[in-house]
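Q: Please design a sequence for this.
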């Protein structure tokens, strides 16, 4: 039996905070998993160090499903972002170990490649529509086949998803949360203009996406979906919060614009009705926030029955370890749709050397045994943790609103 000898948490901040779980077996194989929960990093680090790592020592490193059930059922307190991110850290590290032991890239253990590469979308942003279109043209010149468009809203400053000309974006800022202002009335007319300008400048041979970041009511979402229909978006993401999964039925009744949801979901139960009632087209849950490869495969299998495709969250606050693991999942899962790809900074890439590569609008996880991502611990130690928070959003009258 391949036993777990040690399990420890590494927190590093090469530009932003990342939590990594490293597991070593008695015969010296190591595996790593991402356990980063943006703005709540130390809660997961503590959950792992205090409650999970001690229970892993001496366990069978190959019994991934049993360990998953042990951590999920055994805790009694099920689901939730902290628990499921911690489980994901363990699960990803164990899949890494299993694939290294087999001498195979992880996707081979997941059934082998079901496609040549992983279609990704990049983020084109601008304070104005023109700036966003310029950014989109740069992505096109780099070969991107799918581009997410976000632009500023006249009269609102500093809204999420818009960061001007910076290539790398951190949604969390040092200290307590920054406060932004939101107005749906000001926002709604802007997005159709952005899409019209994008089709005019980029043509129709490119997929265009947009994220509404949970800020609309269902009927406002329905209106936006209708207004965007002529521009055939690939998807509109997070139109409205999904705690009440039923609210997507109202949007569905009004528009054929495709809907994507899931970056804040942690469990298959969070998406059950969205999927089985065919209320969405893409499920965006990630390896790191949804219990690892083991649980995400279960979500994808359910989604496949209902013609819902995957579209894993891949913002820069998910570490390269999550990206590497996600790419093996993406390459092998039958109902893959698209993968978000927000590039990491050079410092982050140096701390997490990885085998995945971008070419011509696609990523490939590489052929290295395991998930292909390592951590340079000496370099990681040079970037100590810095407390940082996600922003909050208020309506113009001061009411706290969805972020
Ligand atoms: O931590 C929160 C970010 O990952 C999130 O706001 C990014 O919405 C996002 C996206 O679609 O990548
Ligand atoms: Mg999003």
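A: Design:
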């Amino acid at each position: 039996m391949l036993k777990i000898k040690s399990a420890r948490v590494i927190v590093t901040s090469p530009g932003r905070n990342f939590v990594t779980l490293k597991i070593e077996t008695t015969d010296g194989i190591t595996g790593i998993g991402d356990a980063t929960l943006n703005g709540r990093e130390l809660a997961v680090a503590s959950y792992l160090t205090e409650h999970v790592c001690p229970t892993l020592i001496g366990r069978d490193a190959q019994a991934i499903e049993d360990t998953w059930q042990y951590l999920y059922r055994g805790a009694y307190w099920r689901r939730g972002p902290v628990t499921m991110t911690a489980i994901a850290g363990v699960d990803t590290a164990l899949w890494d170990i299993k694939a290294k032991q087999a001498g195979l890239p992880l996707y081979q253990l997941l059934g082998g490649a079901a496609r040549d590469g992983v279609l990704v979308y990049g983020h084109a942003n601008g304070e104005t529509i023109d700036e966003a279109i310029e950014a989109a043209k740069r992505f096109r010149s780099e070969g991107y086949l799918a581009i997410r468009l976000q632009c500023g809203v006249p009269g609102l400053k500093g809204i999420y998803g818009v960061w001007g000309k910076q290539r790398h974006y951190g949604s969390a800022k040092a200290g307590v949360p920054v406060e932004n202002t939101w107005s749906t009335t000001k926002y709604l007319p802007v997005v159709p203009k952005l899409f019209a300008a994008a089709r005019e400048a980029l043509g129709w041979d490119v997929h265009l996406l947009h994220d509404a970041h949970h800020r609309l009511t269902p009927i406002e979402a329905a209106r936006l979906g209708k207004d965007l229909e002529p521009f055939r978006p690939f998807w509109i993401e997070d139109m409205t919060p999904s705690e009440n999964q039923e609210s997507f039925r109202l949007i569905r009744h009004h528009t054929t614009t495709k809907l994507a949801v899931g970056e804040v979901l942690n469990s298959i139960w969070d998406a059950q009705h969205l999927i089985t009632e065919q209320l969405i087209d893409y499920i965006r849950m990630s390896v790191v926030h949804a219990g690892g490869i083991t649980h995400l495969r279960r979500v994808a299998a359910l989604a496949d029955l209902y013609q819902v495709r995957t579209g894993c969250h891949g913002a820069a606050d998910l570490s390269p370890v999550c990206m590497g693991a996600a790419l093996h999942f993406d390459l092998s899962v039958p109902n893959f749709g698209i993968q978000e790809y927000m590039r990491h900074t050079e410092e982050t890439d140096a701390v997490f050397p990885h085998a995945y590569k971008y070419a011509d609008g696609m990523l490939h996880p590489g052929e290295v045994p395991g998930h292909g991502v390592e951590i340079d611990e000496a370099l990681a130690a040079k970037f100590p943790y810095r407390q940082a928070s996600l922003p909050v959003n208020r309506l113009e009258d001061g009411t706290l609103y969805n972020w």
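Q: Thanks. Anything notable?
A: The chain has a mean pLDDT of 96. The first strand starts at residue 4 and ends at 12.
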